[in-house]
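task queued by scheduler; priority normal; single chain, no ligands, no partner chains; default sampling; output format set to structure tokens
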Amino acid sequence: MLNVLKMRSAQLIDAVRSNGWNSVLRQVAFFRRAAIVVEKDLSEVVERPEPLASLNLKVLEIDEDMLSSGAYRFAVPNRHLKALHYLQKQKYGGFALARDNLIVGDQWYWVSEATEDLSSLHVDLRRFGFKTWQPSHVYTFDIFVEPAERKQGVSAAFQNNGMLSLRSKGYTKAYGYYFADNIPAFWCTRMTNKWKELRRVGISRFLMFTWVVQLRRDTAHKSVRAARLKNVS
């Protein structure tokens, strides 16, 4: 619990420094924020060495030995705390985007051998209406790239390379979601990497409490249009 509080505090401090209190409040309290649940057939993923190679970036697997070795450090300290939490407490898998010994991005995934036990599903999947699971499927989430590195399609290439690594492990299909008003995530996931829309949900959050409802198809479209107009203005 102490480590979780430390991680949350570090996230809060970094978020306030980067975007101010208004941005933080929008992240911890919102009502029916439209989100798109997506899937990707991993047989469709093609290798794209650029732009990562040209920017001297590589994709590495994150494990406890890597974190404890001291060979790598995170550009954003709260991502290190989150990585420790994900690996040690949640038993998730992860990939790092690194230049030399500096980790500038990370993404995470969850897998399970269970197929019919609803209680064993990741909490996000239960909220999104999943009832069963296949051992060859993988749930991906929380992809992050340090702001200074978000250029030349780095985020999309990082996501793509992570999916290639998961395919090499034998997984056949990936699932994930992004908020409809997150335009960079829309371009990365849907436009560049061609993930397929599965369903639309409305996510509400107040501090540590989260609940989800199904949305009509046109609701998320409105959120995307509004975000695009805001981005242009």
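post-processing summary
- The helical segments are 2-28, 64-69, 77-90, 123-127, 154-168, 183-192, 217-232.
- The mean pLDDT is 87.
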